[in-house]
Amino acid sequence: MAIAAVMCFHSALYFPIAGATRSLFLFGWSGVDLFFVISGFLIGGILVDQREAGNYFSAFYLRRFFRIVPVYFAVLAAYGFAWSMDGAIRPTLARAVGSPMHWYTYLSITNNFQIAKQDSMGFFLPVSWSLAIEEQFYLTLPLLVWLVAPKHFPKVVGTLIVAVVLLRASSCWYEVVTQNQAYVLPWFRADALLMGVGCALLVRNNRAVEWMRSHRALLLGALGVFGLAVIVTGTHLPHWTASPKSPLMTVGLTLVALMYAALLLFSIVHPPAALSRALSLRPLQWIGKVSYCVYLVHQVAFAAATVLILPSLEQWFPRGAPWITLFAALAAIILIAQISWVILERRMIRVGHRFDFEPKPEMGQPALTLVPQGATQLRAAEE
After folding, report:
1. Which of 4, 23, 157, 269 could form a disulfide with 212 if both were Cys (CB 3.0 to 4.6 A apart)?
2. Alpha carbon separation from 204 to 22, 161, 200 (Å, rounded)
């Protein structure tokens, strides 16, 4: 659902989708926020469960490395090879998919800092700002879980969420930052990830789970209230040159994260049977499986198609050219994602899974983990 929303958003930016469909698609930017909440839930849950593991840090980082870095570097290598050919291809490449950032920015996965510094997303692979936030989250959360005593950890998470919200709201209101900077820097966006961590803590608390099970209406009501609040604050991202003082940037991003956190908790504690069956369909499972590669390449494919394919098609099919171009781009995205999965991703995941968490020698056996069935399936999907 998260990757489909983001693809809808970018398709509305590159292609002439109109009417109510366009308005709906333009809310697809929030798919990244949905992913942040889910990622915080999954990664936070794994770290909390494995806090006492003897190889806590090494197992976590090795598994994350083999899941994320190989595909990312493969995309960079393909672009680097094309850029190195020089000649007429460079101007075309820059016009189609953007010029490169500094090489060390890509290698260190600090793309969001480069975007914030230049106050522009006019680079190759601009979607990597969210990947950079994820990686920065991976660098900080394991240490936080390890250092803070479990009984104090929920309070620390709650305090950090409030701090992030106040920092972003005040920075945007007083225009200390631009909208781009508030959108891509980790200390302004960590609230969604931390809310996911909070959800992971809730589903591991028997009393909290029982309360949510017995107060289904309140959980649904919270989802509805947050959804209405999002509509009030705005569902469309303002233009990147606009003032950061908009309700969406000050408090709206937090409301979006709260809405998705409520949706996640409801889906785990009260899994809707019809929705579960629908999302278990093989095509949707496949999209989820290859979603990482799809996320990395889809905007590049859309941009390249509109520059390289659309002008030629317009001569022959003036009306249908944009839609033919869109479907051609989607076909290319699907093909690339499947090739990536077969040749690279599943092999690298297999390598990563060799590094399993091990209990400390003095521990008799791993601590009992209280995780509902839905959460277990989500964690398996992330792995």
Report:
1. 269
2. 39, 19, 6
* Cα angle 108-114-120, degrees, rounded to a multiple of 5: 145
Place 365 in a pLDDT band, splitting at 50, 70 and 90. very low
Is residue 238 classed exposed, middle or buried when 0-12, 13-18 and 19+ CB atoms within 10 A define those classes? middle
DSSP letters for 120-159? ---BS-TTHHHHHHHHHHHHHHHHHHHHS-TTTHHHHHHH
| Burial environment of residue 170 by CB neighbours within 10 A (0 to 12, 13 to 18, 19 or more) | exposed
Count up the domains in the chain and report the number: 1
Give strand pairing partners of 99. Answer: 123
Beta-bridged to residue 53, according to DSSP, are 359
What DSSP state is assigned to residue 178?
-
- Encode burial over 186-219: b for 16+ CB neighbours within 10 A, e otherwise: bebbbbbbbbbbbbbbbbbeeeebeebeeeeeeb
10: Cα separation from own chain's centroid? 15
CB 109 within 8 A of CB 96: no
SS3 99: strand
| Residue 336 near residue 360 (C-beta atoms within 8 A) | no
| Cα angle: 308, vertex 311, 314; to 5 degrees | 140
3-state secondary structure of 104: helix
Which helix (H) or strand (E) element contains residue 27?
none
Q: What is the pTM of this model?
A: 0.91
* Domain that includes residue 81, residue range: 2-382
